[in-house]
Amino acid sequence: MDQKEFLVFALSKMSECSVCKTELYSGNIVKLEERQGEKLALCRKCAKLDHLEILNRGNAKLTRLASNYSSFKAIILRWSRSRNAMSAREYWWNLRQ
Ligand SMILES: [Zn+2]
User: Fold this and answer.
1) How much distance in Å is there from the Cα of 78 to the middle of ligand 1?
2) What's the 79 CA to ligand 1 centre distance in angstroms?
3) To the nearest whole number, what is the mean pLDDT of the chain?
4) Is the pLDDT at 8 greater than 80, yes or no?
5) Cα(61) to centroid of ligand 1, in Å?
6) Ligand 1 centroid to 57 CA: how many Å?
7) From ligand 1's centre to the CA of 48, what distance in Å?
8) Closest residue by Cα to residue 1 from 72, 52, 50, 59
9) What digits encode the pLDDT tens for the residues 21-66?
């Protein structure tokens, strides 16, 4: 199946959505967009990602089901302070098409 892959980010500090000005907290999922050299955070709603379900990667059966039936995959990047680097940790699948 043809799957789209999106990169999203888990915030490591407070921020606000650059579109609707909603306050965003550490751990919130955002999409980052670059406009005129500036990195802007978009909340899930403004990034049109609020219909997505987060699946825990620990559930192998559910992950396999999702990978068979969903057409959308997102990789959540988190800033790891201990490693001082971005790490991809969770996968997000859209089960409702
Ligand atoms: Zn927003």
Assistant:
1) 20
2) 21
3) 80
4) yes
5) 33
6) 27
7) 9
8) 72
9) 999 999 888 998 888 998 899 998 999 887 777 766 677 787 777 7
DSSP state of 39: E
**Token pair 């699948």: residue:** 93
Could you tell me if 67 and 49 are in contact, meaning their C-beta atoms sit under 8 angstroms apart?
A: no
Res 1: pLDDT: 45
pLDDT at 63: 74
What's the CA-to-centroid distance between 64 and ligand 1, angstroms? 31
The domains of the chain are located at: 4-93
Spatial contact of 9 and 27, defined as CB atoms under 8 Å apart = no
User: Using 50, 70 and 90 to split pLDDT, how confident is the model at 80?
Assistant: confident
Q: b or e along 55-81 (b: 16 or more beta carbons within 10 Å of the residue's beta carbon)? A: beeeeeeeeeebeeebebbbebbbeee
